Amino acid sequence: MSGGFDLRDEPWIPVRLLTGESVRIGLRQLFKQAHEIDDLELPVPPAAAGLMRILAAITARVATDGDERLDDLDVAENVDDWLDLRQRVLRAERFDPEAVDRYFDKDVPSGRFDLFDADRPFLQDPRLRTECVDAKGAPNPSGVNKLVMGRPTGINGAVLFGHFTDTAPVPVPAAEAAWHLIAQLYFGPSGQCTPRRITEDRTGSSDAAPLRKSVSYFPWGQDLFTSLILAVPRLRDEELGEDEDVCPWEGELLSPLKPLTPVIWPGGVLTARFRHAVLLLPSPDGRQVTNAYITWSTHAQPQVVRDPYQILERRKDGNFQPREADGARALWRDLDALLLKDDRQDTQRPPALGALPKKLLSTLRVRAYGFDQDGQQKDSVWFASTTPRVLSWLEENDEGMAHHIQRCHGSAEDVSDRLDFAARVAWKVATDSHVDPSPKAKVKLDARKPGPWASVALTRYWPKAETEFWQLTKSERRTDRPLEPFVHAALSALDEAIGPSSRADIRVARARHRARSMLHALLIPKAG
Q1: Chain segment 143-160, per-residue pLDDT in tens
Q2: Distance in angstroms (rounded) separating the CA atoms of residues 497 and 437
Q3: CA gap 428, 444 in Å, rounded
Q4: Is 205 helix (H, G, I), strand (E, B) or coil?
Q5: Which tens digit of pLDDT belongs to each residue from 11-57?
Q6: 43 and 173 in contact (C-beta within 8 Å)?
């Protein structure tokens, strides 16, 4: 190999500058120019979700005011002192270039940011070259298609973003391989993987990555500098520890067979919970990745950590779990869970959205990165979305608006449930000659035969509901009763699903009337 790929200075991160120009830069330049960068433009949202955690961990190391850093445990143990330090860092409006160079050139051992370093490639395990072998001791790599999310693997792999086969793998540029390396470590699957022989056993199964099937929410400022500073989470009591806080590229390789050490704030919480091990194999010139090993990194009990960028929601057993990503769910439907404080709620908002600087609230948006997956091998769709400037509506800043948002979302969900039921009833009435079509007759539904109208109606409903929702967030409408606009949206969606009334037979007409009556019933005040 004639050269490595140093992520400190190679142009691998796509960004958009405040001038509107799109460029690629390395880690060093990203931090030095963060105040001149409008946004990340990474086209792989799961990679962006992981990269933001990596950048937040580095931010904690390089965000300084005098001799104090945002990862200073002595400061962080007093929340007021830490928030005061964060405010002083924000007032500087940029990272100190000397602090950035000191971290990348002195604080981190040489070669640790090189994607193809012989001893310690970035976020990889060089031991896989000798541990991922077949029964005869020959190398047994996983294939480059296994690395790149969206490419099919094996015989039955689905084609999502291009036609690739394991028999004719297409190399991936080194910059893009770095994106997919990060995505694999944060969102990789559980189940069968390339076997890894460490003892006499040759184990070939892995646990799901820490962000598998999840969605992440970040406070998003007017420039990347602000977004990164606000992404650094506050210290929580359970993240205190006697060990040194170490990111994977800062410390030594851990033994896959030993129990895991507690993760420490902030770097360990954000970057040290991986369940997979990866090793990239470069082309001779170091500009492409031609193959890769992907296997398990540990089977030890995972560390219990509150991720700072996830919504938790209550399960039926009373415990909380991260809200799962849903490619069909618009971001506005999560807004009340992001704005409301944790008490009295069945959801807990991401800790990163707590204690934001009050002076910045009117400028802040929320950026969401999600990956709709199952727990094992199936990947459905990834997405990125950004709200308008909504964080001035946080409950502690504007209680009335936060609860108005909650009422609006609750009304939209209630109408959606009624629309789904009404459309199923309508299909049954219209197509089953044994059903009594009179308005008050009971209809027994078969969950296995819902008919097409409900799905079509909900697909048409939610974009209409979003339009109504944002209209309801105007200041002059914060006292409105939100139910009626959503009912009208549902009525329109129902009519579109059933089709033109002029071409409907009498049974379809009766079914439509019954379904519309069920929706109108939501507007009738309840007795008492």
Answers
A1: 999 999 877 654 444 444
A2: 19
A3: 8
A4: strand
A5: 999 999 999 999 999 999 999 999 999 999 999 999 999 999 999 99
A6: no
